[in-house]
Amino acid sequence: MHRASDWVAEYVRDPRRYPVLSRARPGELLGRLPASPPELGEPLHRLLDDFEELVVPGITHWNHPRFFAYFAITGSAPGILAELLCAALNVNAMLWRTSPAATELEEVATSWVREAIGLPPGFFGLITDTASSSTLFALAAARERESGGATRRAGVSPGLRIYLSVEAHSSVEKAAVILGIGGQNCVRIPVDAEFRMRPSALGEAIARDRAAGLRPLAVVGTVGTTSTTSIDPIGELADIAATEGLWLHIDAAYGGAAAIVPQMRWVLDGCDRADSLVVNPHKWLFTPVDCSVLLIRHPDWLRAATSLSPHYLTTAEDGAAVNLMDYGYPLGRRFRALKLWFTLRALGLAGARAAITNHIEWAQELRRRLEANPEWEILAPSPFSTVVFRFRGSDEDNAAIEETINQSGEAFISHTSVEGRYALRVAIGNLRTTFDDVMAVYQLLCAATKKRYQTPRPTVESPSEAALS
Ligand code: PLP
Question: CB–CB of 291/76 below 8 Å?
Answer without folding.
Answer: no
